[in-house]
Amino acid sequence: MSGRGARRPGSPTALRDQNRARVVAELRRQGQATQAELARATGLAPATISNIVRDLAEVGSLVIEKRSGKRNCVRLAGGSGFVVGLDHGHRHLTVGVSDLSHRVVARTRTELPVGVSAAQSMAHARRLLDAALAQAGVERAAVVGAAMGLPAPIDRTTGRVGSPSILPGWVGVDASALADAALELPVGVVVDNDANLGALAEHQWGAGVGTTDMVYLKLSDGVGAGLIVDGRLYSGVAGTAGEIGHTTVEEFGAVCRCGNRGCLETLVSARSVVSLLAPTAGELTIEEVVGRALAGDRAFARVLDDVGRQVGAAVAGLCSILNPELLVLGGELAQAERILIPAIGQVVDRCGVPSAAAALRIRPAVLGARTHLLGAIARAIDNADRSVFIS
User: Fold this and answer.
1) CA distance 84 to 71
2) How far apart are CA 215 and CA 209, in angstroms?
3) CA–CA dist 139, 31 (Å, integer)
4) What average pLDDT does the structure give for the chain?
5) Of 37, 56, 75, 96, which residue is least crowded by CB atoms under 10 Å?
């Protein structure tokens, strides 16, 4: 097709659309930014940025927020669409609705019974989603992106939940197809491992802002790592990179849910910690374990210190291979940061390549219980229907 408005490669119209897409992509990543920040991030000239912002604001795709004493900020308009994020944990399910400037406009949550099936979980998800959309006043047709996190590896070659999984009812399930059928959204649901989503969230808005190479380590009922390499999420050929919890640390140790023996997870998961202390202290929560350790209980502090040292040995190997600048500690056990971080650091210093160990900073996650939901929202925004932004 030819004509004045045709989008031929290299034509003014095609170049305009490409530049608009770059600006929109950056706003999707940052949530909001000044025009000067957009120019630096995209490499476009300030005048080009100014024209794009003016044009998109005129058609209602962008909002310019005037701030006294500061430069005006630009964000994507709420009318441009909304995204849905789902955080599916071992014992909980959280659903959030966000606009494209990363503002969560509704959030719903429920506890899940032990042994719930995948189909039953998605029935809960549908109920929570309906409630969240109603709370936000958002129609289903306005949803332009959706993502769900699971505490399980997702095999990219098949789309199915792999083993090992802390959710046995999900193994072998095509999670995206199941979510699509249950939620009935106008867009497909992207599914990823929750540690990957934690890495995305902490990299964009949390402890990892400004870093290019970092590891997000989730220590909870399951143990996994999300890897940011050269500023991007790295998940490997099949999507299972970062399964640090299933590296063998004791060849003849306890049998792990993955079928192997002596995996790191058998020693450092939240369940392992409470089971070690149960014979003398009874059933406790991780919060109670951490509280007693910090209050000076020697046995509790010893168990958490041992967790840090076991994790440190695994992290030392990871650092020697990837040489990240930052390790972000997340998950339930991150409550014990005052004990875990020094213990991890000592073993990394002793066992890691000296230059890699010296370069590594260890910090607790800062987004707390919101981390994996925000990661799902970030993933949904990244995969949102692009046509709604530049048409």
Assistant:
1) 31
2) 12
3) 22
4) 89
5) 37
80-197+372-390: which CATH topology? Nucleotidyltransferase; domain 5 (3.30.420)
Contacts for 206 with CB less than 8 Å, ≥ 6 apart: 328, 365, 366, 367, 371
Please report, rounded to a whole number, the percentage of residues in the chain having pLDDT higher than 70: 94
Q: What pLDDT sits at residue 197?
A: 97
pLDDT in tens, 235-274: 998 888 999 999 999 989 999 988 899 999 999 999 999 9
Residue 204 in tokens: 């964009």
Dist CA 33 CA 380 (whole Å): 20
Q: Please check whether the two domains, 80-197+372-390 and 209-366, share a CATH topology.
A: yes
For residue 144, the Cα-to-chain-centroid distance in whole angstroms is 19
Mean pLDDT, residues 172-198: 96
Q: Report the distance separating Cα 13 and Cα 16, nearest Å.
A: 5
**C-alpha torsion angle, residues 99, 101, 103, 105 (rounded to 10):** -20
* Residue ranges of domains in the chain: 12-67, 80-197+372-390, 209-366
The reply to whether CATH 3.30.420.40 applies to domain 209-366 is: yes
CATH class in words for 12-67: mainly alpha
Residue 302: Cβ within 10 Å count: 13
Give the integer Cα–Cα distance in Å for 286 and 388. Answer: 44
Task: Specify the higher pLDDT residue, 355 or 4.
Answer: 355
| Angle at alpha carbon of residue 222, lines to 219 and 227, rounded to 5° | 65
Task: Indicate the length of the chain as a whole number.
Answer: 391
Rounded to whole angstroms, the Cα distance separating 133 from 3 reads 43
pLDDT per residue over 288-335, tens digit each? 999 999 999 999 999 999 999 999 999 999 999 999 999 999 999 999
| Res 78: pLDDT | 62
Would you say residue 1 has pLDDT above 50? no
Q: pTM for this one? A: 0.84
The beta strand positions in 266-321, using DSSP E, are: none
Per DSSP (E only), the strands in the chain are: 32-34, 62-65, 73-76, 82-88, 92-99, 104-111, 143-150, 154-155, 160-161, 189-193, 214-219, 223-229, 232-234, 326-330, 361-364
Q: In what order do the strands lie in the sheet with 143-150?
A: 104-111, 92-99, 82-88, 143-150, 189-193
